[in-house]
Specification:
By secondary structure, the protein is an alpha+beta fold. It is built from seven helices and twelve strands. The protein has a five-stranded mixed sheet with strand order 1-12-11-2-10, with helices on one face. It has a five-stranded mixed sheet with strand order 4-3-5-6-9. The chain has a two-stranded antiparallel sheet with strand order 7-8. The protein is globular.
């Protein structure tokens, strides 16, 4: 019999929000936070820090148009990755503040600084400008979800994630690298967002350059929640904010675009 070729399912590298629709989305009880202007960033717990980017099985290395190695690929990973699985060059002092656990959040430097932060993350070498950068965390995704089989493809990314190859790579890591990471293991496949927030509140500092993004919970009544959301949105926009993010409290982190994670 002829062999069957495995075709991985399409997916995103990181969970992506859908656009909020008041006619479609009942957001009673949802968590709401400000949509921060900056660079979406995934921290792998430091597992890839200091390793050659070409050796890391979840790095986006190929140009999707030419299928060749990207010309401006940063040679060494830091453990920080963009939403397109590209390594972010950051200074050692900043990286030393990050815990040995996976994090999902936004690198930013305040309202109206998105272009500056994006340019900073694209530089080949970090500089003193990183002193102004903060990492606002809004999740701790389980690695078995982040690295599950699938194909990430868009205008800047062509990446096939293979769980077995990634597990083989993990198995070759030094035991000392994994020891601290496993102490903070959050690799629970069905951890709801509300529990995720409780975990992060206990593990992340309340201040400094790395912190849990501020969230508030909407009322459980649909009409009251919708009115409260509009009020929060208007206050955010009029004060210079970019919008809001919403998460369903029972939702789990998934590497796809979902309606349990909304942008407004």
């Amino acid at each position: 019999m002829p062999s069957t070729l495995f075709t991985p399912a399409r997916r995103e590298f990181l969970m992506q929000p859908s656009k909020y629709s008041p006619q479609r989305d009942a957001v009673a009880g949802y968590f709401v936070s400000e949509k921060l202007e900056g660079v979406r960033a995934f921290w792998d717990g430091g597992l890839s820090r200091g390793r050659l980017t070409t050796s890391i099985p979840y790095a986006s290395k190929l140009n999707p148009r030419t299928r060749e190695l990207k010309k401006r690929l940063r040679p060494v990973a830091t453990g920080l990755w963009t939403a397109d699985a590209m390594p972010i060059t950051a200074p050692e002092g900043f990286l030393n503040q990050l815990p040995c656990m996976p994090l999902d959040g936004t690198l930013w430097a305040g309202r109206g600084t998105a272009k500056r932060v994006k340019a900073l993350c694209l530089r080949e070498q970090p500089d003193k400008s990183w002193e102004d950068i903060e990492y606002a965390v809004f999740g701790s995704p389980p690695l078995n979800k982040v690295f599950q089989d699938g194909l990430v493809i868009n205008s800047s990314t062509l990446l096939t994630l293979n769980e077995h190859k990634i597990q083989d790579w993990f198995d070759r890591l030094d035991a000392g690298v994994l020891e601290d990471y496993l102490y903070f293991d959050t690799n629970e496949e069905h951890m709801p967002f509300e529990r995720e927030m409780a975990l992060l509140r206990n593990l992340l500092p309340a201040d400094g350059n790395v912190y849990l993004a501020g969230h508030r919970k909407l009322p459980i009544n649909i009409g009251t929640a919708t009115a409260a959301l509009v009020e929060i949105y208007m206050k955010t926009i009029t004060s210079g904010g970019a919008g809001l993010l919403l998460r369903q409290p029972e939702s789990i982190w998934e590497p796809c675009r979902t309606r349990s994670f909304l942008t407004y």
